[in-house]
Amino acid sequence: MATMADVARHAGVSVATVSHVLNDTRPVLPHTRQAVLDAVETLAYTPNTLARSLVTARTRSIGLAVSAISNPYFTEILQGVEAGALEHGYSLLIADPHDDPAHERKVVQLLHERRVDGMIVAPSTQPRELIAYLGRHEVPTVFLDRLVDGDAAPGFACDQVCAENAEPVARLVTHLAERGHRRIGLVAGLPGLSTTSERIAGYRHGLAHAGLAHDERLVVTGNSEAAGAERATDALLSLPAPPTALVTANNAMTIGALRAVRARGLSVPADLALCCFDDFSWADLFSPRLTAISQPSKEIGAQAVRLLLERLDSPGRAARTVRLPSTFVHRTSCGCPEKGPDS
User: How far is C-alpha 159 from the chain's CA centre?
Assistant: First the structure.
């Protein structure tokens, strides 16, 4: 197996120069840099990352803790994190906290014990114990998708990144109101998550903007998963005056809502108009095609990596929260006619 000294001899440079090229720690003349890279390729040299971590106190690895990795939304976030990490020469260690605060704390500790340089986490509904651990050990951290407020993380400079939530849901509600709907239901997510509270706030804002009264009976909790949304939608459809239109607050709950509608022999949008938060790859293949809010999930993941690397370079800088815009994808489940390519 080739060593760094072998690379140096082959390239005709010092070992220190090879180190500067591989670690990007000092500018090197272009022709010298190319000679080193050519030697690395010729000799099939693989850097000893363990030895390098002992010298630099960095492992060039990132811990990622997100629940429901099988969810297409989080899968795309994972793709964004992975691409961003690889671009900067970092590897990923991944764990699923299962939205369980106790398990969340445990898996984050396990990732930390693997000496990751920093952590990217989608926190649970009760992240205080998690935050206490990260703060106590001064772990550079970025929270993604689900935000934590300052009261939950006093003195802990954690960066955060997510999509806009309230305004896009308000737009869905306004769109349904413009279609003539006056009883618009909401299948909301897991209580305690920032995404849930923000999307409920957007729903209420959309109603107010449309001049519609808020009826608490039309807001049900689907707990961010399909089975819960199926039960919640069935409860809405059992009301004496059921909604004529429905907004679902994530992609898993959209599936559950559609199951409940079809179990009753109803159809979308003839019997119930439907709009959903979260677009996914097969939403365009449903019949009807799903009108949805598309989150920039891959960009959320990539932005989380950028924020974490900035934190690693400047540990003392002020915490930042980045919100990325979502996109309204207009299809036919809302009751609108199919649009042509030039519409």
Answer: 14
Output the CA–CA distances (angstroms, integers) from residue 245 to 142, 328, 333, in the order listed.
37, 17, 10
SS3 301: helix
Q: pLDDT category, 150, cuts 50, 70, 90?
A: low
CB 201 within 8 A of CB 219: no
C-beta pairs of 11-16 under 8 Å, 24+ apart in sequence = 11/35, 11/36, 11/38, 11/39
Q: Is pLDDT of 77 > 70?
A: yes
Residues in a beta bridge with 65: 95, 121
Report the 10 Å Cβ neighbour count for 41.
9
* pLDDT attached to residue 58: 63
Q: Which residues pair with 237 in a beta bridge?
A: none
Q: Is the four-CA dihedral 315, 318, 319, 325 of positive or negative sign?
A: negative
CB 60 within 8 A of CB 92: no
pLDDT 10s digits, 44-70: 887 655 445 444 456 789 999 998 666
